[in-house]
Structure formats: C-alpha cells, structure tokens
Design brief:
The chain is of the alpha+beta class. 61% of the residues lie in helices and 20% in strands.
Length: 121
C-alpha cells in the first residue's frame, strides 16, 4: 500500500475483490448441493455432495487466509451492501476510506471463473 497517497496495490485490491466474491461462490455451491440431494433421479448424489463439500472447505480456508492478509495489510472492510444492480463495499486503510463496486453481471462472471478454478484444482 502507498500510505502517502492512500492507494492500494493491485494485489491488495484483488484481496478485497476475492473477499467479496468468494462468499457468493459458496452460496452457489450450497444451492447446487440442495438441488443434487433433492433430485430423485440424480445418481449417487452423496458422491457429488461430498465433492462439493470438499471444494467448499477449500474456499472457506481461502477466505480465512484472505482475512489474515487483509488484517496484515491493515485493510478493514467496513461496510458491504448490495442492491439490484451492484455489490459495493467501503474499506479503510492507512487512515483513508475508499469504495469498490461490482455490477452483478461481473460478480456472476467472477463466480464462474472461481468455480472453474476450484473444480480444476
């Protein structure tokens, strides 16, 4: 972080973005787990649900690590809000306050990218 100018590095901005996006990835996986487990024609649902649980554990671990990195960088996410058009947050760092905003279409695309990443790893 450039504390003199109150600017975050690209890596620090990416941490905030991940912190905001990953909970939505968890929500998608949780919803899919419910669909799989409640669909009677789905073959061997426990295998797929188990795999989704495994992926969700990795995401939860990553969120924990991101929180540690944010704390280490002295970045505090103070307010997260959402409405029909976007996801927004206010974050504090080095005595400065700034905002970040994502349209839902971007959030959806980012969730898809993260899902692909976690399924491939």
């Amino acid at each position: 972080m450039d504390k003199i100018n109150g600017r975050l590095s690209a890596e620090e901005k990416q941490l905030i973005k991940e912190f905001l996006i990953l909970p939505y990835v968890l929500s998608v996986l949780e919803r899919n787990k419910l669909i799989i487990s409640k669909t009677p024609s789905f073959k061997i649902p426990e295998v797929f649900v188990g795999y989704l649980d495994h992926v969700m554990d990795k995401i939860t671990h990553d969120i924990t690590e991101i929180k540690k990195q944010l704390r280490k960088s002295e970045i505090k996410i103070s307010i997260v809000t959402q409405d029909e058009s976007s996801l927004r947050c206010i974050y504090l760092f080095g005595g400065y306050e700034d905002r970040m905003s994502f349209l839902w279409s971007l959030v959806k695309a980012e969730v898809s990218i993260r899902l692909k990443h976690y399924f491939e790893s």
